[in-house]
Amino acid sequence: MTQPQIKQSIATPEGGLSNTEATANKAHRRWLMPSLVAGVVLVLLFSGIRSRFKAREALHATTVQLAVPSVSVVVPKRAAPAQEIILPGNIQPFISSPIFARTDGYLRKWYFDIGARVKAGQLLALIETPEVDQQLVQARATLATAEANLALAQITRDRYQGLLVKHAVAQQDVDNAVGTYNANKAIVDADRANVQRFEALVSFEKVYAPFDGVITARNTDIGDLINAGSSTTAASSTGSSAGSSAGSSPGAARTDLFHISQTGMLRVYVNVPEEYSQGIKVGHTDSEIVLAEFPDRKFTGKLVRTSEAINATTRTLLVEIDVSNPTDTLLSGSYAEVHLKIPSRNSTFLLPVSALLFRSEKLQVGVVKDGKVTITDVTPGHDLGTEIEIVVGLKPDDQVVINPPDSLITGQEVQIVQATLPGDTR
Fold first, then answer.
1. Number of DSSP helices (H) and strands (E) in the chain, helices first
2. Which helix (H) or strand (E) holds 261?
3. What's the CA gap between 244 and 234, in Å, rounded?
4. Which of 2, 117, 118, 217 has the lowest CB atom count within 10 Å?
5. What whole-number percentage of the chain has pLDDT above 90?
6. How far is Cα 415 from Cα 72, in angstroms, rounded to an integer?
7. What are the φ and ψ backbone dihedral angles of 239, each rounded to 5 degrees?
């Protein structure tokens, strides 16, 4: 076939595609659809595998992350240079004395009632002592008799001594006269001492105030039978001038006529626990007194002395604090809260109680360093409620685990999620 004929067979008069091209197009269309479907399937398959792979990687990362426990830590803070402790105190007068009778008789009169302020030497009461008065009269009469006998013995002695010079009497008579004189002189001395004793008893009829102060109790009334240094037997009074004693019944035994207290300076006695005793320094420990009656006031006190010994029963140190009370604002016998500032140790730190591990070995904490935990023994100090002092076992830059799990061990890797600085209350 010639070349023109070949061309004629390929091209049609209408200018359309030849049979060969049409066949090729049909074959192409036949493979295109499956290829597209296969491509879509491959894309979907790849996408699913890829998402599963990412999920597996995420799961692995989460598992690895969860395998390392997360903890919160706190840096211990140093304790204040001086911590304040509050203890109960008992306010007492600087001087307090019961006034007793020193002679027997009946109370004739009293001059001051409770609450009265008296000066030293002021007359408080007068006791009537008829028996003592008569005994004094008798003693003076006996003394007069003895003095008369002594005068006669002196005359006899002097006469005999004069006669002895002239050899008119024997030596024995002179010696008898001298002995009689000496015996009578001794009797006079004894009788004079007896008179002085009764005079002293009569002087005790007047009861005087021994020092400046306030009458806090009157335990007697007019007509009461008074026994020297003992109790009265009749009804008496303390709380009112009418004669009824506060807290006592008529006829009850009492040992003093009055009770007087000096309140210009007060003593406050405090029992300090043994653990704080080493911080108590006389003259250097600051103290303040607070009373419920004065909620907005604080009274400054001075620590003046201690018992210098721990009470074996209470394990406390008795401390005395003096408080000036010139206007008698404070009342003796009151209950007070005593605020003492005790110096702290230089190495003392404060930790939240939640950071402690209570184990059989010892009190411990978990310290994080370089991502690992070290279980550290600590020695506690004072328990302050939400916080506790740590005396030994910590350093200033330690990171201590808060709320540690019981399974926490030394060498365990942890991840810090929150760090609390000293003094942060969040």
1. 4, 22
2. strand 258-273
3. 11
4. 2
5. 34
6. 9
7. -90, -10
Task: Say how many CA atoms lie within 13 Å of 387 toward its Cβ.
Answer: 17
Q: How far is it, in rounded angstroms, from Cα 98 to Cα 104? A: 17
Residue 129 C-beta-side C-alpha neighbours within 13 Å: 26
Residue position matching structure tokens 């360093």: 369
For the segment 92-104, the average pLDDT, to the nearest whole number, is: 90
Q: Kindly report the average pLDDT of the chain as a whole number.
A: 80
Task: Give the helix/strand (H/E) hosting 284.
Answer: none
**DSSP letter for each residue of 118-155:** E-TT-EEEEEE-HHHHHHHHHHHHHHHHHHHHHHHHHH
Average pLDDT over residues 307-335: 92
Rounded to whole angstroms, the Cα distance separating 147 from 150 reads 5
Quote the Cα angle for 175-179-185, to 5°. Answer: 150
- The pair of three-digit structure tokens given for residue 92, joined into one six-digit string: 């007492």
Dmax (CA) of the chain: 222
How many CA within 13 A on the CB side of residue 4?
A: 0
Q: What is the pTM of this model?
A: 0.59
Which pair of structure tokens corresponds to residue 316? 């406390």
- Asked if pLDDT for residue 26 goes beyond 80, the answer is no
> DSSP states of 39-82 as a string?
HHHHHHHHHHHHHHHHHHHHHHHHHHHHHS-EEEEE--EEPPSE
Measure the CA–CA gap between 339 and 285, rounded to whole angstroms: 10
Distance from C-alpha of 226 to C-alpha of 109, rounded to nearest angstrom: 12
**pLDDT-based confidence at 246, cuts 50/70/90?**
very low
Query: Coil, helix or strand for 160?
Result: helix
**Sign of the CA dihedral running 225, 228, 231, 237:** positive
Distance CA 261, CA 283 (A): 25
Look at residue 227 and tell me whether its pLDDT is greater than 60: yes
The helix or strand, by DSSP H or E, that contains position 201, with its residue range, turns out to be helix 171-203
